[in-house]
UniProtKB/TrEMBL annotation:
Native source species: Cyanistes caeruleus (Eurasian blue tit)
Record function comment: S-adenosyl-L-methionine-dependent methyltransferase.
GO MF entries: tRNA (cytidine-3-)-methyltransferase activity
EC nos: 2.1.1.-
Keyword Methyltransferase included in the entry's annotation: yes
Keywords for this protein: Methyltransferase, S-adenosyl-L-methionine, Transferase, tRNA processing
A GO biological process held by the record: methylation
This protein's name: tRNA N(3)-cytidine methyltransferase
Length: 367
C-alpha cells in the first residue's frame, strides 16, 4: 500500500481515456428506469446473498472521524495507542489511521468554538454564547420541553448520531462497542434495504436502549424520520451517496442538513473520480457520466471533491475537510496493482445566530 500517491500526468490522462472509453455505450433508457425504480430490490438481493460477510467492520472510523465521539470520549480515545492491526487497509472501504486527521479536527474546533467550548442541551457553543443562552429561562428547559412535545427513540439522549445506509452494521457495531457505556449517547441507523436493517436488528450486539435501526428511503422527501429535525450531533454518510442517482443527490444532502443541530457535523466518504473500480467497468454499464451499474444491479457514482463541496455548500454546510486520497494497492499474489481514489470530507452546520432572537426562535427545536 502506498499512501497519498501523486499521479503523473500520463497516469491521469490514461485514467481519463479509460473512463471515456467505457462510457461510450450507455445502458438503455428503459433499463435505467428499472434500476432506479427497483434499487431497493437489488440491494435486498445483495444482502440476502452476502448477509454480513461482504464488508469488514470499520474499526478505523474513530481515528478518521473522531467527531463521531462526544468530546470527553474523544479525548479518552486520543490517548489510547493505535494498534498495528488498525493501521492496515483490509478492504476497499478503509483508510489507514492517521493522527493528522484528528489534529486537523481539533484545530478547527478550537478556532470556531474556542478552548472554552461547551454544550447546552447538546448544542456546542463558546463561553459568550453559553451565557446568552443560559440567561434565557427558555433555554434552561429546552431538552425537557422537546421530550414533552414529542416522544421518540433517543429522546432523552444528549448526543445523537445517525448513520445513513447502515448496511449490515459494519459501522454500527464498532460505534456501539465504543459508546454503549457512554451515558447520554444514542445511535440511529437506517437503510432502504429492509434485509440490511433486519441483519442489524438480529445481531447479538443490537440493543434498542441505545440504538434504533429503521428502514428509510433518503430520496423520499415526504417520508418522515422517527425523530425531529435539528437534533443530530453527527451524520455518517460513508459509501452511500454514490449509490443514488446524481439528479437526486442534492435533495438528499439538503434534507440531511436539516436534521443536524447547529454545530453538528456531517462526515462523508465515498468513491473518487477515476478510482480503479470506475476504470474496470466494461462498455454498456454506464448509466450517465461517471455513474455506472454493477452486474448485480447496484449502482455507483464517482465524485470529484469540487462536486462534493458544491453539494454540501448549497445545503448550507461549511467545509472542515475535503480531500482526495489516492493510494496504490498491490495484490502480490495476483500481481495486480490498483490505483484507489477516495473523497473524504467533513462539513459542519453553522451555529445559531444569537444576535437575532427571531431567527433563533424559528430554528430552535423548542420554540
Amino acid at each position: 500500500m502506498g499512501d497519498h500517491m501523486q499521479w503523473s500526468q500520463e497516469e491521469e490522462e490514461n485514467a481519463k481515456k479509460q473512463a471515456t472509453e467505457n462510457s461510450v455505450v450507455k445502458v438503455q433508457s428503459e433499463d435505467q428506469d428499472k434500476y432506479e425504480r427497483e434499487a431497493s430490490k437489488y440491494w435486498n438481493e445483495f444482502y440476502k446473498t452476502h448477509k454480513n460477510n461482504f464488508f469488514k467492520d470499520r474499526n478505523w472510523l474513530f481515528l478518521e472521524f473522531p467527531e463521531i465521539l462526544p468530546e470527553k470520549k474523544r479525548q479518552e480515545f486520543k490517548t489510547e495507542e493505535i494498534s498495528s492491526e488498525h493501521a492496515k487497509i483490509n478492504n476497499d472501504n478503509s483508510f489507514p489511521l492517521k493522527n493528522g486527521m484528528f489534529e486537523e479536527g481539533e484545530k478547527y474546533w478550537k478556532k470556531y468554538y474556542g478552548g472554552g467550548s461547551t454544550a447546552v442541551q447538546g448544542y456546542a457553543y463558546n463561553k459568550n454564547q453559553v451565557k446568552a443562552l443560559t440567561d434565557n429561562p427558555q433555554g434552561k428547559t429546552c431538552g425537557e420541553e422537546l421530550c414533552k412535545v414529542e416522544s421518540f427513540p433517543g429522546c432523552d439522549a444528549t448526543y445523537r448520531i445517525l448513520e445513513v445506509g447502515c448496511g449490515a452494521g459494519n459501522s454500527v457495531f464498532p460505534i456501539l462497542k465504543v459508546l454503549c457505556n457512554t451515558p447520554g449517547t444514542f445511535l440511529y441507523c437506517c437503510d432502504f434495504a429492509s434485509g440490511a436493517v433486519e441483519l442489524v436488528k438480529s445481531h447479538s450486539s443490537y440493543n434498542s436502549a441505545w440504538c434504533s435501526a429503521f428502514v428509510h428511503d433518503v430520496c423520499d422527501d415526504a417520508l418522515p424520520y422517527p425523530f425531529p429535525d435539528e437534533i443530530l450531533d453527527v451524520i455518517l454518510l460513508v459509501f452511500v451517496l454514490s449509490t443514488i442517482h446524481p439528479d437526486r443527490m442534492q435533495g438528499v444532502v439538503n434534507r440531511l442538513a436539516k436534521l443536524l443541530k447547529p454545530g453538528g457535523m456531517l462526515l462523508f466518504r465515498d468513491y473518487g473520480r477515476y478510482d480503479t473500480a470506475q476504470l474496470r467497468f466494461k462498455k454498456g454499464h454506464c448509466l450517465s457520466e461517471n455513474f455506472y451499474v454493477r452486474g448485480d444491479g447496484t449502482r455507483v457514482y464517482f465524485f470529484t471533491k469540487d462536486e462534493v463541496w458544491n453539494m454540501f455548500n448549497v445545503a448550507g454546510l461549511t467545509e472542515v475537510q475535503n480531500l482526495v486520497d489516492r493510494r496504490l494497492q498491490v495484490n502480490r499474489k495476483k500481481k495486480v496493482k490498483m490505483q484507489r481514489v477516495w473523497i473524504q470530507s467533513k462539513f459542519q452546520k453553522p451555529l445559531l445566530s444569537l444576535h437575532n432572537p427571531e431567527e433563533t426562535s424559528k430554528r430552535h427545536p423548542c420554540k
